Amino acid sequence: MSKIYSSPAAALDGVLFDGMTVMSGGFGLSGNPESLIPEIRAAGVKDLTVISNNAGADGFGLWMLLKSRQVKKMISSYVGENKLFEEQYLSGELELELTPQGTLAERIRAGGAGIPAFYTRTGVGTVVAEGKPVEVFEGEEYVRENWLRADLAIIKAWRADPEGNLMYRRTARNFNPNMATAAKVTVVEVEEIVPAGTFDPDCIHTPGIYVDRIVLSTINEKRIEKLTVRERESA
């Protein structure tokens, strides 16, 4: 069967259900699965646990699922500057598992590698370590972190071939490659689908074995989260 689907809605057909765990790629506004997220909103599934570095920005990305009250819990590392996220968390409407960014990436990587737990110095002696086992290695305390896995990973790549081999473009190669390995089903939206044999095997970032469904993205906005400028100095 072909891995290529005709639309984002078709690529998600049959894989969404209430209470599921979804990994969503992206770092800030780079590498977000911006065509797939609106289809999750349209499907109306609820009580979602979403694993993502952040929850989008006003009107963009995962913010849409917060706005529609479809997210029950976020597992994230950066939650600042999202007022809707803040409001829902402070009101008790949204659960949050705050995870240091490097730890979040490693928990996802561990999930893909089949490693149930690992130890890290990050978070020792802080609220991050509360309720977690702590052990001493070579005289230093380390907190145990568990893997992260998901029912579905939605990711964004630059190019794919029909087998699902992926290439990412620059900063979009953030959480996406690890998430592709750590879910039961991985759906990827891409800017371009190229013929088989196009890629040099050494240039493939995610092997096709991890990819279940591919769709051409319908939204490819290159947004700037914060535009900072300065006046040009006179000659």
TrEMBL record:
A Gene Ontology molecular function term of the record: succinyl-CoA:3-oxo-acid CoA-transferase activity
Coiled-coil ranges from the UniProt annotation: none
E.C. designation(s): 2.8.3.5
InterPro entries per UniProt: 3-oxoacid_CoA-transf_A, CoA_trans_fam_I, NagB/RpiA_transferase-like
Official protein name in the record: Putative succinyl-CoA:3-ketoacid coenzyme A transferase subunit A
One family name in Pfam for this protein: CoA_trans
Enzyme class label: transferase
Species for this entry: Edaphosphingomonas haloaromaticamans
Keyword terms, alphabetized: Transferase
